[in-house]
Amino acid sequence: MNLCRTSKGWWIIAAAFVAACGEPKPAASPPTASNTGVAPSVTPTLTREDRLALAQAVALPDGVLVRTAAGNLARYTTGLELVADAKVEPRVASIAVAGQQAYAVLRDGQVVRVSESLAIEPIATIEPGDPTWLDIHGDELLVFSVMPASHRARLDRIRIADRKITSIAISAGNSAASSIGQPSTFLLDRDRVWFGIDAGEWGGATGRVDLVTNSVAMIEGDPEPVFGIVAAPNDRVWIYGGLIHMGATSGFISEIVGNKAIKRFTREAIGVEKERATNPAALPIVKVARRGTGLRILVWHELFDVSTDLATWTKVATLEAREHRGRPDAVGNYPATVSMIDVGGTTVLATVRDGLVILRSGKLAPASP
After folding, report:
1. Count of other CB atoms within 10 angstroms of residue 226
2. In CA terms, which of 67, 109, 176, 319 is 20 to 30 Å from 362?
3. Measured between alpha carbons, how far is 58 from 40 in angstroms, rounded to an integer?
4. Which residue from 273, 290, 276 is spatially nearest to 318, judged by alpha carbons?
């Protein structure tokens, strides 16, 4: 297994292009719900290859809803049996669930309801951008979009009752990571939206949007690539991630205290070790989830049960799943896992090339057809 992580060097090319072609155009006028876009369409039956290449999974009360890498949808029972699938046009950019109701944002900015049969009903359309995240906050839908050419972002707040849209402009600061990377991991925690940036060897960054004041703040410290953000025990917020680059490997978990990130766990190594020196290994932290009175943590391809003080790590299983290669000029791969969710008390992973994987009898086994 190639454990290197690809860089985000193509952002440098994009930055150079912008520099050559001039400044980006002024921001568009405030979005309105009257822009309905092209009516979305749904066609049933996906190929097996499409159902195996996943980009996101969310837990439903009676199963799992997944978004494929091609931007389509599939729904499974709690036993991970396929119920329905659908090819959606325009493609789905992100999904979210509140109780029995599922929602999606499409790549053209349409925000829609998703029924149990995967039929979709338009709600509103946001202004142009690259929508990357969707969640539900009380009586409103939140959509985070990035504008790669300008290295800026926008959070749209869509009130479900009257479809009114208000927007918050977001700047991720002037660090190397925010100039090269873009927000790619998110957490809605009460009245705050957290976002993290993974810019490979150029580091990472973390920011926060306050939904009460509509203000944005960047977090100081821990400039390592951020893979995820989690609501930790005792009302804390943790960021986690790491790096594998040119023989150096690392993994970390940090706690946000005020506007600073304070490291709570770290592993680092240089070169190839003949024998493992630590448990877990010095590899990026890919997923963290609360489980019972403790935590369940995926360290690249190894799953652990961990105490809340991060002192005790007990290996549960090893993931055997294919990863995505980086570009031909890059130094490695991205992790195989894109989501880790709890389905009826069982851990389920969504992977980039092997579909859904379920933890059974101490083993992670493929469950997708």
Report:
1. 31
2. 67
3. 22
4. 276
Whether residue 301 contacts residue 316, with contact meaning beta carbons closer than 8 Å, is answered with no
Please tell me the least confidently modeled range out of 93-97, 118-122, 180-184, 228-232. 180-184
Cβ atoms 170, 189 nearer than 8 A: no
| Of 352, 229, 228, nearest in space to 286 by CA | 228
Q: Whose structure tokens read 């789905």?
A: 92
Alpha-carbon distance of 42 to 51, in angstroms, equals 16
Q: Are 199 and 177 in contact (CB under 8 A)?
A: yes
Order of strands, sheet of 63-68, starting from the edge strand that comes earlier in the sequence: 41-44, 82-89, 73-77, 63-68, 54-60
Mean pLDDT of 289-294: 93
176 phi and psi angles, rounded to 5 deg: -60, -40
Return the percentage of the chain with pLDDT > 70, whole number.
85
pLDDT band at 323 (very low <50, low <70, confident <90, very high): confident
The DSSP element (H or E) to which 133 belongs, if any, is: strand 130-137
pLDDT value for 148:
76
Q: Looking at the predicted structure, is the pLDDT value of residue 6 above 50?
A: no
